[in-house]
Amino acid sequence: MGHPLSQVLQRRGQEARRLALPAQRRSSRGKPLSSSSPNFKSIVTEAAAAAGFDLFGIAPVADSAELKHFPSWIADGHAGEMKYMEARNDQGQLKRASLAHVAPWAKSVVVCAVNYNTDRPYSTQVQNPTRGWISRYAWSREDYHDAVLRRLKQVEAVLKHAAADAHSDLITRSYVDTGPIVERVFAKYAGVGWIGKNTCIINQKKGSWLFLGVILTSLDLPPDSAAPDRCGTCTRCIEACPTDAIPAPYQLDSNRCISYLTIEKRGSIPEELRAGMGRHVFGCDICQDVCPWNRKAPITAAPEFSPRPGLVNPALDWLAEMSTEEFRETFRGSPIRRTRRSGLRRNAVIALGNSGERAFLPILEKLARDEDESVAQAARWALLQFQQDTAAGLSGTLPL
Fold first, then answer.
1. Can you give the pLDDT at residue 165?
2. Which of 6, 114, 181, 254 gives 260 a disulfide partner, CB atoms 3.0 to 4.6 angstroms apart?
3. Where are the alpha helices (DSSP H) in the chain?
């Protein structure tokens, strides 16, 4: 038997030639594709399913209310040090504020999602003080950027093949967290899910453990309906955030988000936020772990998203003292490389300070003299936490 995608290519190529798009069939090569072809939408959905996507839909390119708020979010400094979020075109316009600023040729956005949930416990269910937490999305055996992009390219190939059969031009661009586009906004308007109060995309059946990928296309496809908001009066994600990174529903201050602090933030982390980080060393899942829509979230069928050995609840002392070579080998092809060895060790040392485990004192005393100043400074802070706990304990035993 042939590969499912090969079968789609063959079947859909025959369909495009046989049925559809008579107007395109009569046109000469180089003409734009028909703006009202239901067959191309069918091609997209069948190809997305064959590529292994769990959810998919079509979003219009019109600027939504969410995108109109993006410039003020940037102006208020909520992007922190993520300067790429502030990228502008030659006219000085924020690229992510409108597709027209970067891809004026785009007529539709194909949004695809794949479930990455595994059968391992949530962070809120793990209490071992000697172990850290790596965000669920980063456990995978393959970097999700590569896994999702590979699927998108398969869908793209089907589209291009069908366009070639119709003797028409087609422009496409595929992105997985790498392009100047706010994926979750288009996911909402493609019907993939609604934007929750924690700013994550949530699907009624799949939950929020979803990787998103988008294909910008010059095809003018009939859009799907936007997903209705089903958060209701629930505020569990807001209440559960230990660093108060969700100041109001549907708003996120990256500067206070544990994911931002442990992955994007370079150098020293503000002291007032360190205790709230708990034992998180790369990313954070709390606002998703407590979401009622994830109570029955299905387990992924994609083998590449199964956890690598040692990344679920890793030993904090191992991470804090990890060598350059060990970091390189352990996280080869992993998104964890984004935080760099320095950042991962810094995060692990802060987690040691939050652990309450006095067995870590010798390690912290050693790391307080580390050549990496961000690690050394975090170790000195961690030692201070133990000293303060000891002082508090002693004062509690004194007679009144």
1. 82
2. 254
3. 4-18, 22-26, 38-50, 65-75, 144-165, 183-189, 236-240, 258-259, 271-274, 286-289, 316-320, 324-330, 340-355, 361-367, 373-397
What pLDDT shows up at residue 187?
Answer: 98
- Residues 89 and 81: their CA atoms lie apart, in Å, by 19
**Among positive and negative, which fits the CA dihedral 132, 135, 141, 143?**
negative
CB-facing half-sphere around the CA of 215: CA atoms within 13 A: 32
Question: Which helix (H) or strand (E) covers residue 172, if one does?
Answer: strand 172-175
> What sign results for the dihedral spanned by CA atoms 62, 68, 69, 70?
positive
Question: Exposure string (b/e) for 195-224, b if CB count within 10 Å is 16 or more?
Answer: bbbbbbbbbeebbbbbbbbbbbbbbbbebb
Helix 4-18 × helix 38-50 angle, to 10°: 170
**Phi, psi (rounded to 5 degrees) for 201:** -75, 130
CA Rg value for the chain: 24
Give dist(CA 375, CA 371) in Å, integer: 8
C-alpha 103, offset from chain centre: 22
- Annotated catalytic residues are 177
Give the count of beta carbons closer than 10 Å to the beta carbon of residue 326: 13
**C-alpha dihedral sign at 113, 235, 256, 345:** negative
φ and ψ of 112, to 5 deg: -125, 150
Query: Which amino acid is residue 215, in one-letter code?
Result: I
Answer positive or negative: Cα dihedral of 349, 311, 257, 262: positive
How much is the pLDDT for 163? 87
Decide if 230 contacts 191 (C-beta within 8 A).
no
pLDDT, tens digit (0-9, with 9 covering 90-100), for 101-140: 999 999 999 999 999 999 999 999 999 999 999 999 999 9
Cα–Cα dist 202/192, whole Å:
8
3-state secondary structure (DSSP) of residue 69:
helix
Which of 396, 283, 318, 290 minimizes the C-alpha distance to 131? 318
Question: Helices (H) and strands (E) in the chain — how many of each?
Answer: 15, 10
Chain-centre distance for alpha carbon 356: 31
- The residues of the chain scoring below 70 in pLDDT are 1-38, 167, 389-400
Cα separation of 88 and 102, whole Å? 9
Q: Distance between CA 155 and CA 140 in Å, rounded?
A: 22
